[in-house]
Amino acid sequence: MQTDDQNPIALTIAGFDCSSGAGIQADLKVFSSFGVHCLTATTCIVSESPNEVRAAHIIPANVLEDQLGILFDSYPIKHIKIGVICSEEQIRVICKYLDGFAGEVVIDPVGTATTGFSFRTEKATNEFLETLLPLGTVITPNIPEASEILNRPILSLTDLISSSEAFAKKFDVGCYLKGGHLEIGGKHFDHLSTPSGSQEFTSPSVKLPQTHGTGCTLSSALTACLCLNHDLFQAAKKAHSFTAEALRKSLTWTSPRTNKSIHHLKQFFDLY
Fold first, then answer.
1. Tell me: the pLDDT tens digits for 138-171?
2. Which backbone phi and psi does 90 adopt, to 5 degrees?
3. Which CATH superfamily is domain 9-264 in?
4. Residues 191 and 200: beta-carbon distance below 8 Å
5. DSSP alpha helices (H): ranges in 48-196?
6. What is the number of helices (H) and of strands (E) in the chain?
């Protein structure tokens, strides 16, 4: 029989993506790839494809609380990854369960999909920034998210680094700023800032028509590596490599409706 250390248990609190490229479905694939058992609590059900979000159906806060209640009662949850949160009520429920939680909390501050669809109201966003974000161990914004939260443009590598540091200082958390929206010399750069130091990660850019689920993949891989007892810098390095490889090994197919190639993240491969 395996022990908890050999097969740790993580919890993802996120949206349900019917196209299985982002949200809970992506999280399940990633955690399974690392040998981490993944529990799920659903915040919304999203009708989407990699190119389009048609609707997001918000799960009532009491239903979310039912999910979290039984999971926290039944499992030795080691670490938590948080993705899309839609309402003030959901945020308050999650904060209640994070109070006193001993594990690491990785927060991917998803507010708007790559397609432009908004998941949160302005009030919920304010609640998210004021009450939930400071409870994270490490936050994993992409460039548009960090730019919006910090109210500053991120147009260069210097901007990326200074914004990562500013984010970490502002919320007193680690900040892994994902630089996939900024290509420099055929490469993209991610930057991790913490109170104890910083680190930069670089990989060649991959030309894809869309990268649906990349952020979920990175934050889940980071959480999984923390579950496997890597320190934050080791976990970040492995998560970066894992996500870059997922992009390189994307699946391609032809869409019956648009008759164009669509690339999709493929998380299952033997890296570790």
1. 999 999 889 988 999 999 899 999 999 999 999 9
2. -60, -40
3. Ribokinase (3.40.1190.20)
4. yes
5. 61-74, 88-98, 122-127, 143-150, 157-171
6. 8, 12
